[in-house]
Design brief:
The chain is mainly alpha-helical and 132 residues long. It contains 5 helices and 3 strands. Helices cover 60% and strands 11% of the residues. Strand 2 and strand 3 form a beta hairpin.
Length: 132
């Protein structure tokens, strides 16, 4: 016999998982956050260093880091007056790199398509312009 309470709980859990997944993917929706992930690939960095590297104001950087921190993609630590950030889970880089590979493949396919397209559009012959 099917236990509908367990099925409902599974559907609810799966729905929440999709919701979390969508929230996490929002991190990938801004070029500066993608640069931030790339910058943190090699390890922890101070906010000041990140600002210089990404050419962002501290206020703007703070917004991006807060969004990523809320989604638990980065963690911070404070040493004196300096705040350092690092990626919370290196598996994030697998998603980042996989998405980049997919995009590279698409760009290469688009380039190949452009190379096979004639450089000039063939126009239909003129009918003489007058009615017969």
């Amino acid at each position: 016999m099917l236990n509908y309470s367990k099925v409902g709980a599974m559907v609810d859990w799966e729905g929440r998982l999709y919701s979390y997944h969508a929230e996490m993917c929002k991190v990938f929706s801004h070029p500066k956050r993608l640069e931030l992930i790339q910058a943190l690939r090699d390890g922890e960095m101070s906010v000041a260093h990140l600002c210089r590297r990404l050419k962002l104001s501290p206020a703007n950087m703070s917004q991006h880091l807060a969004m990523m921190r809320e989604r638990r993609l980065v963690v911070s630590r404070k040493q004196g007056n300096v705040v350092y950030y690092r990626l919370a889970n290196p598996k994030l880089l697998l998603a980042f790199d996989t998405l980049r590979e997919v995009l590279t493949d698409q760009i290469q396919k688009d380039a190949a398509l452009l190379e096979t397209t004639p450089s000039q559009v063939v126009r239909p012959a003129s009918s003489g312009g007058g009615a017969t």
